[in-house]
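Subject: sequence -> structure tokens, single chain

Hey, anyone have a minute? Need the predicted structure for the following. Not urgent.
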Amino acid sequence: MRDPRHDAPWLPDLCRLPRVAALLGLAELVVVVLALAPDGASGWTPMRFFSASGFALWLALAVAVLLCKLRAPISRLPPRLGALAALALAAAVALLGAGVVHGLYGALGMAPLGVPFWRFTAGAAAVTALITALALRYFYVGDRWAAQTEANARAEAEALQARIRPHFLFNSMNLIASLLRRDPIVAERAVLDLSDLFRAALGAGEGDSTLAAECELAAQYLSIESLRLGERLQVEWDKREPLPWQLPLPRLTLQPLVENAILHGISRLPEGGTVAIALWQEDGRLHLRVRNPAPAPDDPLASLHRGAGHAQRSIGHRLAWRFGPQARVTAGWAQGYYACEVTLPVPP
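Reply:
Had a minute. Here:
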């Protein structure tokens, strides 16, 4: 079966307003460079500068519209041949436009910028092709980088399936088997929670979840672990309303942090402890904090800093891709407690 991603157009999308603005900026930059050149600055007047700017901006807009409309057919060609075709089209548009402008100026008894016809039209075509090549290359590299970042984020998300460890499954199934006769209602609830948990793990790299769904999934995981650990595990939720419950989040954002708190903290302490999960909104940012007692970093039993790093880095990478540089994941041990906090921007 053909991978649908292979059918995606490889030519950069010039239908986006930021990219059209970038092309217009490059065109205007060329005019400014020509005006500031040592051998040409004396001949430039404000009217000449405005005329050249209008011509350059018109050419850039025409090329952007043309390549926007022809993106799909050009992308059906091999990349090298398609790139040459795109540059040839840009040069043809510039050649034709420059010819029309030169003819209009000639009808008025003037020569645009004081340049003969062939030099004016050929120069406009060459400069337009060069600027188009630079812009397309920049946009192409940016698109490939974004695609690679998305692929890495997806791989990181799918790798989180391994965080729900096989021995957790075996322990949970043994626990459920022991509950079947003693408390079938609790056993049924545990089966449903375990099913939801693994369904989320298998779909970790597909689509978004929400803050409400992530909290529910973490609560289901804690419910299963509470059956296993008994009184050694206490849970405290601190949900400070209002909270953006429908805020889109990557799947498995909160549950791996809660799992780290139990695996590397609570389960390594004979007396157990309390996992405190706090959620609040402040200054346009959402804060998620998981805090739990844990052995000191120099304790031989402590593997928190070694074991939790992968999940935290993975979550940090996915959140940075989803929310940008304002998303942060910070963690540290202090006075017998380990805390991990996620900070996300909340759209207005």
